[in-house]
Design goal:
single chain, 146 residues, alpha+beta, 6-stranded antiparallel sheet, 6 strands, globular
Length: 146
């Protein structure tokens, strides 16, 4: 649980947390062949996940006992992402309940490949290690109240 919580999809992609402090984050990622698109470069969905996680980590780095959920995210793809990638995130502003964050993915040569901004909502961390059981999973006749 190097990210503070168990995130199976992040583990599957192989993200490596390098910085998680003071409103900053850094994650390295070596895409596998199954993470590439038909052009042989890192799939946009994998890049968006990397950006999302990098921003979430930056938001959480100032209050590590809280979790965050993505409210919105805007992503720009600037050039193909090839080889080992490094994502750097920065908390730009924080209110009591929201974090405004940005992140950039760089290739091995240090060139920007993708950039995102996002808004995240702080939520109380779950004792279950990040998993909330939905009432509908237990009984499909239960109507959610939130």
């Amino acid at each position: 649980m190097k990210f503070g919580v168990e995130i199976p999809f992040v583990n599957h992609l192989g993200f490596d947390l390098e910085l998680f402090d003071g409103g900053a984050s850094q994650i390295s990622y070596e895409p596998l062949p199954v993470h590439l698109n038909s052009f042989g470069v890192t799939h946009g969905g994998a890049l968006m996940t990397l950006l999302d996680v990098t921003m979430a980590v930056a938001a959480r780095s100032v209050q590590k006992d809280m979790g965050v959920v993505t409210v919105e995210m805007k992503t720009s793809f600037m050039q193909p992402a090839v080889g080992k990638l490094t994502a750097k995130g920065r908390l730009m502003h924080r209110s009591v309940t929201l974090a405004f964050v940005e992140a950039t993915v760089f290739d091995e040569a240090g060139k920007s490949c993708a950039h995102a901004t996002g808004t995240f909502k702080y939520v109380r961390a779950l004792a279950t290690g990040g998993r909330r059981i939905n009432a509908l999973q237990i009984d499909p006749n239960i109507v959610p109240t939130d």
